[in-house]
Design goal:
The protein is of the alpha+beta class. The protein has one domain (7-194): Gcn5-related N-acetyltransferase (GNAT) (Aminopeptidase, 3-Layer(aba) Sandwich). 31% of the residues lie in helices and 32% in strands. The chain has six helices and eight strands; from the N terminus they run E-E-H-H-H-E-E-E-H-E-H-E-E-H. The chain has helices at residues 22-31, 33-36, 53-65, 112-127, 142-151, 186-194, and strands at residues 7-9, 12-16, 70-76, 79-90, 96-103, 132-137, 154-165, 168-178. The chain has an eight-stranded mixed β-sheet with strand order 1-2-3-4-5-6-8-7, with helices on both faces. Helix 4 packs across helix 5. It starts with 6 loop residues before the first strand and ends in a 5-residue tail after the last helix.
């Protein structure tokens, strides 16, 4: 698996999350605390120390070098506006991964998130050779539910108390797509065909 990799579609890009992104990452996280908090992963042990940004980047890039993850910064017009992580990459008979993301509220609704998810999914399924991509969404997260619906992910049902989010174990709906379900233009081609003007 080649890493780092850069993926682009118009003004939207995915590139390696870097240590020098720290100031911008902290700025975005601070400005978007209220926007992101209901969907944030939290440690089940409230006394566990929070991972600092440099530790986070080093851990994510170790996973990338080992072929187990892809930690991307989402960019819009070359400015970092969010983060997308492909994690839990399993090879062998599984050939599957999970995808999660967050985006700054100031650029939400412009089609950046669906474009980033489509870029990452096509890269994983069509370039790297994975077979399945999965996205898990809290049932209350209307914005993320719209993203997976627009992109054609299949709803596989609810996982009870699946992830520790915002201080408690929360139910999630699982959405997935396999390589065979992609059209000839991949997920990005599908997204270009269904997106509304302004997205």
């Amino acid at each position: 698996m080649t890493w780092p990799v850069t993926l682009t579609d118009g003004p939207v890009g995915l590139r390696q999350l870097r240590l020098r992104d720290g100031a911008r990452w902290r700025e975005l996280r601070t400005a978007n605390r209220r926007w992101l908090e209901p969907w944030e992963a939290t440690p089940p042990d409230p006394g566990a120390p929070a991972m600092q940004y440099p530790q986070l980047v080093r851990a994510l890039n170790r996973e990338a070098r080992a072929g187990r993850g892809l930690p991307f910064a989402i960019t819009y017009e070359r400015e970092m506006v969010g983060q997308l992580s492909v994690s839990g990459i399993g090879w062998g008979s599984l050939c599957s991964a999970n995808l999660g993301y967050w985006i700054s509220e100031h650029v939400a609704g412009r089609g950046i998130t669906p474009t980033a998810v489509a870029l990452a999914t096509d890269h994983c399924l069509l370039t790297l050779g994975l077979h399945r991509m999965e996205v898990n969404v809290r049932p209350e997260n209307a914005a993320s539910l719209r993203v997976v619906a627009k992109l054609g992910f299949r709803d596989e049902g609810v996982r009870l108390k699946y992830l520790h989010i915002d201080g408690a174990w929360r139910d999630h709906r699982t959405f997935a797509i396999t390589r065979e379900e992609l059209g000839p233009g991949g997920m990005l081609g599908h997204w270009h065909g269904v997106r509304s003007p302004g997205e």
